[in-house]
Each structure stands twice: as structure tokens, then as C-alpha cells.
Amino acid sequence: MGKFGFVIHPFDTSDLARKFPLVDRMSSEWVESFMKHAPPISAQHMQNIDTGRASTEGWLVATTLTSRQLLDLPLPFVLRKIIAACKKAERQGAQIIGLGALTAVVGDAGISVARQLSIPVTTGNSYTVATAIQATCQAASLMGIDLGRANLCVVGATGSIGAVCARMMAASVGRLILSARDEEKLEDLAGYIFSESAVLADIQTDLREAVREADIILAVSSAAEELIHPEDLKPGAVVCDVARPRDVSRRVAVERDDVLVIEGGLVEVPGGWGGKPFSFGLPHGIVYACMAETMLLALENRFECFTLGRTIQIEQVREIDALARKHGFQLAAFRSFERLITPDDVLQIKRRAEQKVKKKILAP
Q1: Using an 8 Å Cβ cutoff, are 341 and 263 in contact?
Q2: What are the chain's domains?
Q3: What pTM, to 2 d.p., does this model score?
Q4: Contact (CB, 8 A) for 335 and 248
Q5: Per-residue pLDDT tens for 53-74?
Q6: Residue ranges of the Quinate/shikimate 5-dehydrogenase/glutamyl-tRNA reductase domain (predicted)?
Q7: Distances in Å between the alpha carbon of 21 and those of 9, 28, 32, 216?
Q8: Cα 265 to Cα 337: distance, rounded to the nearest angstrom
Q9: Can you tell me whether residue 336 is helix, strand or coil?
Q10: Which residues of 56-75 are buried (b: 16+ CB within 10 A; e: fewer)?
């Protein structure tokens, strides 16, 4: 039976309070200063994961750095903290390590971490791409959006996940908008997409302008702050937010009941698992796709650096998706800001969007 480890981190100090309730009584600055030097924490032993074809078990290990610290602290220090968490999982029995959220982004996206370990590392980004595309297409269909005529904006397009998502969806949409901060990288990606699929993608460094033109938004940035705000979204827009931390402001949930925002990259593990419960803010049996990729490789006894670095091959995405189908992994029911989205919810969002558009057309 293959065994895996998976490295997680708190998005902010409020996440630490799930494990240590006393944190709520302390200032964020003090908590971050203290946890900066804390050792990695064993969060959960996930047992009895059995798909009917194979079984596995794994360990979640948390590095105590928050999202802001992972991006702002000196890279050598951050890498040492991530490597320490990986080695803790290895000592517990892991034969392959998955990097979660921003631990998969910092530096060279896992390459330097893998060089310091005796077991392989994966970022899980290949399966994240597969599930992000599936979720985006399903959500658009539910909202009655015709992909072939829709404007799709990829936020964070020059990142490893964004680039391959854009490449794989380019020929399926009416217009492709690539948005990121670096114009030169955007031009390079647009050129590559044209050479590959003859699609002329638009590039936009002004994120707000890019989002305002989009019917569908696939948000996959590695920013620590919220990027997409309620005033910038079209009525009836679909946003698949794959980024962790989120790209979409929580204000959208309060102020825009005419747009559909879903959390991308959520996967249902067949049969769930045993062991002491640990809260991701997700229901039991639901994990992020990056963790699911690590599980799948352990189930297959494929102890290799499957997804590493900033280049993801389309063949990798298709291969890991095929393994997921083999073992019965599938997209979880849609969720938005920790809340389940029902078919009736989608219908109501769609109706409100139609009413808003109608009022705008009839307005003098």
C-alpha cells in the first residue's frame, strides 16, 4: 500500500485558531511572529482510503507560516520551513509528498524542495487543471452560457495552472482574455497559444478591465490578496476560483446575488477516510485536487515527481484525470464561500441576472 504526505499551511492566523483556540485572543502580528519559528505540526493521519481498486493512507503536516509570510519572508527561510514539514511526513511513513496551496508556488514550484528530500514531490497542479476546467464548463452550462460564444478571462494566466488552462480551453471559447501583471509573459503565452491552436488571445494587464469584459472567469493567481471585486463582474458571470487563498472578495457573496462563484478544484474521495478529523472548511470526504493527485499517485504506487516546476504538460493533465476516473474520484458538488450551491440556487442566480440585464436594457 502506497503512503503519502501532504503539506498544508494556514491562510491567515484565523486558520490557526481551528487547531489552537487560544490564538483568537492574540493579535495577528504576535501570532505570526511566534509561529514563524514554530516546528511543523502533524495535523491528521488519514487512514483507510480504499477505492475498491487500491488503498492508501497519508499524513497532513502543516508548516506554520501564513500565506503572507510564505510570499514575503526570505525565500531560503521559507524553503527550509517547507522542507522541514516534508521531512516530518517522510518520518511518519510517507513515500511521496504533495505540496498544498502556496507551498507549491514559492520559489521554483517544488524543484528545490524535491532536491532536499529522498522521496518524490508533486504540486498536484495537473489534477487541479483537470478539475478546474471541468468545473468551469459545468458551471457555465448550468448558467446557460454558450462556451463557443463566451468571453473567458484567465486570471493569473502566466502561472503554471493558468497557462495550461488557457491552452486547453482556447479553442472552446468565443474569446480568450489572458490577464496577469507581466505583459511580456502574456505576449509570449498568447503567441504560443496561436502557434498551437490558431486562437488569437487578447492580453490585459489591467485585471479589472479584463474581468469586466468576461462572461466566465477562471481565477488561478498566486496572490495573497483578493483580486476580484463585486463592482467588476457582469450580471450572470461565472467565476471558478481555484486560487488558495481566494482571488474573489467575500464582498461578492454579499453584494452580488446575480453571479455564480464556485470554488474550483474540489474533489470527492470515494469512500472518504478514517482517522481523527481535521477541518479544511470542507465536508468530510472532500479534498482539494492537489491533494487528490498525491493520493492517486500513492494509490498507483507511482512514487515520482509527477507535477513539478512551472511547466505542466497537457498529457500530464489527461493522464492524472484518467487515473482519477479509474479510482472513482470526481468533482464535488459546487460550493461557494464554504456554502453548498444547489441547483435551485443556480436557477435563482440565473433569474436575477436576467432581470438585471433586462432592466439595464430598458433603462432610459
Answers
A1: no
A2: 2-126+267-331 (no CATH), 132-265+334-359 (3.40.50.720)
A3: 0.92
A4: no
A5: 999 999 999 999 998 899 999 9
A6: 146-254
A7: 17, 13, 15, 39
A8: 14
A9: strand
A10: bbbbbbbbbbbbbbbbebee
